[in-house]
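Handout for the seminar on molecular recognition.
Each group receives one record of this type.
Step one: identify the two inputs.
Step two: read the structure output and locate the region that could contact 2-oxoglutaric acid.
Step three: write two sentences on what you found, then compare them with the reference statements printed after the record.
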Amino acid sequence: MGFIDKYTGKLRTYKAVYTLNNILQYKKLKHNKALYKKYKLDQSIYSPISSSILKQLPPQPSPWLDAPDAAQKLKVSQQLEQFAQELQGKIKAWPDNGFLSLEGFFGEEEVDKVNTEIDKLLESHKVDFNYTNKKIMFAFRHSEALKAILYTPALTSILEFILGRQVIPFQTINFIKGSEQLAHSDSIHMTTHPLGNLIAVWIALEDTDKSNGPLFYYPGSHKLPYILNDNFEGGNTKYRIGDFVYKKYEEKVQQVVKEEQLQKKTFYAKKGDVFIWHANLLHGGSPVLNPESTRKSMVIHYYAKDVICYHEITQRPALISNYPISEVQVIEMD
Ligand SMILES: O=C(O)CCC(=O)C(=O)O
């Protein structure tokens, strides 16, 4: 694990530091050359990037299930028939809900393997908790067993159907204890142009209950306007990211939850259950009531291919080491 993963100091807030780092990470950014051209973004692939620049570009269509005619399109979709009847129903509810759950998707043995793998990686110091002391980032890079989970065809076929594009696993986050993360949309962390081209998969690596900080979410909240840097006062300047930008973002989310009177739901999971959510669904981790408890889980964030991927909160382009080399590909939906 690199120094930067544990580091929380001021250097993190200077945009120039990231620009320098981007130059060193050329290989993980080079796919953006073609993408910036495709979307008519006229700037260096090393420069900061944010929605305030991207919203000035020519408008782009949203993912097909975010379009107003999504329900109609799903009704007549032949490709939907590849999925079991029950799953078809859940996908049909996606445009309204912005989430779906797959009970018992992974078996006991598969989950045990993931847990053993994480224990081993922690023991051998190949991975560690990052500066939050709760998150183990990118463990999949060190483990074939974890990679196999990310690329499970029965899973990626659902994600690709929902987004209408090939998906690229960008990051994994493993938790041993509940995250207690306040409500947020992943689109403040992992953002795309066009918006909505990210999808998250949460896997229960053990049961969750009231005591160990279960996942919570706000059904339908993905349909609200995206909360991006221009929608709250984050204290950003031309050269720096505001010191309290994420706190200010969380406060803005709380305000929206209140104003919109959103109804909170909790996902009480059984080991092996999967919860998939939309790029803009508000969600988080409930308070951990029993401090001794564990809540092992793994989140996988997938970006769609052939869109610009970046981090709105820190205004950095996303460094992607496993970007597929193939040509621009859009899966045609019937
Ligand atoms: O697992 C949790 O408690 C929350 C995870 C989360 O919010 C995320 O990965 O975006």
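Reference statements: The first helix runs from residue 3 to 6. The domain at 3-317 is CATH 2.60.120.620 (Jelly Rolls).
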